[in-house]
Amino acid sequence: MSVKTVAFAACTAGALLLASGGAYASALNFSVVAWNASTPGSTIGSANQQALPSNPLVTKSDLFFTGKFSGIPEWDDNTQADNTLWDFTNQLSGFSNVTYYNGDSADTVLSTANFASDSLFKLTFTVNTTLSATVTHDDGYSLWNSNNTTDLFDYAGPTTAVGNSFSVGPGTYNLWYDEANGAPAELAFSNVTVPEPGTLALLATGLLGLGWALRRRRHA
What we know:
Layout: H1 3-20, E1 28-38, E2 63-71, E3 74-77, H2 85-88, E4 95-100, E5 117-127, E6 131-138, E7 141-145, E8 151-155, E9 162-168, E10 171-180, E11 185-193, H3 197-219
Antiparallel strand pairs: 1-2, 1-5, 2-4, 3-11, 5-10, 6-9, 6-11, 7-8, 7-10
Helix pairs in contact: 1-3
């Protein structure tokens, strides 16, 4: 089999994998920070109930959790009487380097009814190529660039479970999620697609091979 044929086959295979969405991310890596506070007297429109970097909970005194998460977030807690960090994150499955602050723990209740307490999460992640996903969230979420100066997607207020899709290119991003007004709590990724290194390498190898074969043909 000629070099040209092999290169063409590699290009075709890589392109088909990308076009078909067959290259799925098996894991993403997040740095997770969370804040928690009592918020009596708040309403659905209060600033402290919004999934935004401007949320006033972002203070050292309200910080309660940091950790690293590897995987695809599929966090969901529908237990009305519970709604703890432990239950929401599937018993912290996929987490490492977990630290608690201000006397909090995995048993910390994320939020309570009537907007009396609230939790805010920031999930920071970096991708080297295009990432597409659907995020189902209850309550709000927003997506920002790395220094929180550009709002890329904003559904920041408390909601029922809503699914929203996004697609971003290479870079570092902050996903903000707010858990308000008691359970249910949900932050679940689905339809996650990102070209994996093997797929990209296959396509690149094919392109290089085709270039070499065509150059050799011209010289001949």
